[in-house]
Structures are given as C-alpha cells and as structure tokens.
Amino acid sequence: MPTPELLKQMLHEKPACWTWAAFASVVFQRWAAVEERKIIQVLGSPVRPTGRLQVGPEVAQFVTRHMRAVDDVVAEVEAFLRAPGFTEAFGARDDEGTADAEGIVRAANKLGDYYERLLKLAEECRRYAFPEQYAELVRDYTRFVNQPLQDFGGFVNDVLERLEELQKRAMLGQPYIWLGPVPLRTITDDRLVWLILDRLRTID
Predict the structure, then answer these.
(1) For residue 204, what pLDDT is reported?
(2) Domain range spanning residue 182?
(3) Is residue 55 assigned to a domain?
(4) Which of 122, 127, 167, 195 is most open to solvent, judged by the fewest CB atoms within 10 Å of its CB?
(5) Which of 147, 85, 146 is nearest to 110 (CA)?
(6) pLDDT tens per residue across span 94-144
(7) Per the structure, how many domains does the chain have?
C-alpha cells in the first residue's frame, strides 16, 4: 500500500480507481499499525495484570459491560458503512471525478478508530487478574471479544479484493462503476454467547 507521501500524490493526480486505492491504503495502514498488538491479543501471550477483580459480581459486571461495548462498536461500524455519507464520499456511481478525497480519507480513518477501540476492549480482558474459579468464563469471554478483530481482518481483505477488481476493469478499458460499500461480515457464535450467559447466571 502507498506511503502517506504517495497517498497524497495519488489524491492530487487521481488516477483510475483512486477512490478505492485511497480508501484501501488508509484502512490497511491503520490495520497494519496495530497488527502486532492484535496478534499478541489473539494468541493470548502472557501479560502482567494491571488490575484485579476480587469477587464474582465484579467479574460479572466487567464481562457484561465489555461484551456490550464490543457489540456497540460492531453495530456502529455496520451503521457507518450503510450510512449515505459513506457512499456519497465515493461520488456518483459512474463518475469517480465527483468523489470527495478528504471524505474518503476521513471515512477510512474512522474505521481505523473503530478497529482500535475494539482492540483496546479486547486487550483489557488480559490486563485484569480474575479469581481462579472464573477461568472458564474468562476463556470464553476472551474468545468472544477476539472475534471482531478477526472479522475486521476479513473486512480489510474484502476491501483489497474490491480494489483489485476495479483495477482489472480499468486495465481492460472498462468504465468505472461504483460497486457499493463493502460490509463488515461478522461471525456470531450463538453457542458461545449462551455459554457465557449461563456462566454469568451462576455467579452470586
């Protein structure tokens, strides 16, 4: 993906497919900047706890609050990608020249912000020490908060594939066409969610 300097040049020159090239570049750069943190989080590498939850109600409150926060961020991302403002930044369906360069960059950075919010929420689950009897709950909860990070990686791949598709059309001399937004495809493990809820109900 282009460096910030090349991105600036591209936004000035606006070659074929510049809209999705710019969007993909910013999204990829934001994703790559924290990829090492994401890998550490998903692999569950040991960290020194910075806090401790002493009793069951504290654990239940922590898990419930963070699961809701993760769900809220995912819902915000999905709504943002469907919003007219996002689509309008890419201009008319058949005229890339009507796109808003600054709007595209802002949209990509906003998605990067969402991703970092998800990563921070996931990282918090490893920064607290829990009583041993809640180890299974914490394990399942960690799986739950890690999944959106994986989903976002799939979103980045989808964006790159969209760019490749448009570039192939340009090389063949085919006219530019707006193909619509790329959705964030999320995976919900209902069995895992119910298992967590069952574990929470056993906490006094």
Answers:
(1) 67
(2) 4-48+68-119+149-195
(3) no
(4) 127
(5) 85
(6) 788 888 999 999 999 999 999 999 999 999 888 888 889 998 999 999 999
(7) 1
